[in-house]
Amino acid sequence: MAGDGDDSQAQPAEQVDSTLLKQYGDKYKYYKDIPQDEDGIVAANQKIEEAMYNLAQLYAQKLNEPDSAIKLLEALLDRYENSEYALRARYSLYNLYNDKRSPISEVHKNFIINEHPETVYAYLILNKDPRELKRDVMDYAYAYDGLFTAYSSRQFETSIGFSDFLLTLDQFQTNPEIDFAKLYYIKGMSYGYLGQKDSLAKTLTYLVNTYPQSEVAPLAQKTLNYLKNGVPAAAKGNEPGESLASAETKDPENEAYKGFTDKIKPTDKIFVLIFVDKNKISKNDANTQIADFNKQNYEALNLKVFTFLYQQTHLLPYISSFKNVEEAQKYIQDFVGAGASKSILTSPEEKIFYISHTNFKVAYGQKRMEDYIKYYENILNK
What we know:
By secondary structure, the chain is an alpha+beta fold. Helices cover 54% and strands 8% of the residues. It has helices at 18-24, 28-31, 38-61, 66-79, 86-99, 104-115, 120-125, 140-152, 156-167, 170-173, 180-193, 197-210, 217-229, 244-248, 283-297, 325-337, 357-365, 369-380; strands at 270-277, 304-310, 314-322, 351-356.
């Protein structure tokens, strides 16, 4: 009679495939889980496709490693050309290459809008209203991904269009994987950035009442408090009548600050950058004036100056490097106070600021220097 500790019935012995055992002998355990029939092979490949796509999104969106994301997505297309993830992968590659200003982005753009014109990704590329799409050709996952892409790209009208479209779909409403709280938050904040305060308040109130446990509920409530009570003194700037959108720039959780950090790693180098209109000063003049200032005031630090062209609109002198933030801040203070800086920083839109190597990889690599400047002014240097 079996006792309580007898697990022979609860855990039956593993079945052994005698054919595989005969074929592989001692290496049987390495091969026993490999699918042998067509259905098993298809299922395994589907898991691989999904894993490759999701890992690429992790590299691109969370780890700020676009090159690794590109390699994975290209491998996905090479290996599974007809995968259900193929079109999503192409859209991701279009964005990643576009951020790098690579002409390869046009290859994926043209493929999507020519071969798959009635998809949400084609509509997103062409800035068309996704509500015009026919439902029978709509991939809901594409639209959900597209919503977040549009919002992070500050395409607020498109964000509202995607969210309105998705919320009308019964099939979308029953999907347990959808984070509806974030969807309503993006929709509401898009209204806010467009100055539509009534719609902002209505959408965020619904969010707070319906999804009180969501991680975005406190952010939504904070925005509602701004609307009701005005911007608190600690968050106000010097200009009267500061807008809600401006107040949001004081919030460290602002979507525009995604990827930036106020933490300085022990191995992080600190740089000072200057953001100037390329039409107001030449690269040689900027380098010469900064080098002269450094020689007169900071010769002991042996600072190096490099100047990049940014987005074809600005010069980005890059002064390297400082051992800590305090040293960089003193440099900025001295530079601004010096007469030489007046010929470089000639308007309020031109900026000087420090940046860690970690933040530089995000700001420059993703062409988000303007976002970093706001982060610096409102969070780091407040």
